[in-house]
């Protein structure tokens, strides 16, 4: 994997020397760095919660991407990126809709609870941050499992 030399990378791509596995490694690295940047940029959580969230999300990403890549190898080992992005897009859009519905429901419940209790405050409660980490971790696992299921469905019907 080339970390800094763009000329060498361009040459490898032009000469068709970039394998599916090389591309997979770049994709995995990109998602890991993106996770660190997104979660690490959250100023509302304590550094402990951020660190926990980053570690959990990276573990999920490494597990899920490797599993999906290996499922693709069992099929025929071809077109991983085309398959991955297409399937991830559709499942991701479905996940966004479900997430929005869950947020609306949670917002209604939390607003009702906070109106009925003068001591209940979720904005400044660190336990609420841990609950969010658990929720989003479980959500990431579910989305990953759905992507894996779709990849398994790509196997020839004769199997």
Describe this structure in words.
There is one protein chain. By secondary structure, the protein is mainly alpha-helical. The protein has one domain. 77% of the residues lie in helices and 0% in strands. Helix 2 packs antiparallel against helix 3 and helix 4 (80-116) packs antiparallel against helix 5 (126-152). The longest helix is centred in the middle third of the chain and has 37 residues, at 80-116.
Q: Which helices and strands appear, and what pairs or packs with what?
A:
Blueprint: H1 6-14, H2 20-40, H3 47-75, H4 80-116, H5 126-152
Helix pairs in contact: 2-3, 3-5, 4-5
**What's the helix-strand series?**
HHHHH
Shape: globular
Quote the average pLDDT.
85
Q: How large a portion of the residues is in β-strands, by DSSP E?
A: under 5%
Low-confidence runs? none
**N- to C-terminal separation?**
35 Å
Give Rg in angstroms: 20 Å
Work out the helicity level: over 70%
Tally of alpha and pi helices: 5
- Major β-sheet, in short? none
Number of domains: 1
Structural class: mainly alpha
Q: Total strand count, please?
A: 0
Short description:
This protein is mainly alpha-helical. The chain has helices at residues 6-14, 20-40, 47-75, 80-116, 126-152.
List keywords for this structure.
159 residues, mainly alpha, 77% helix
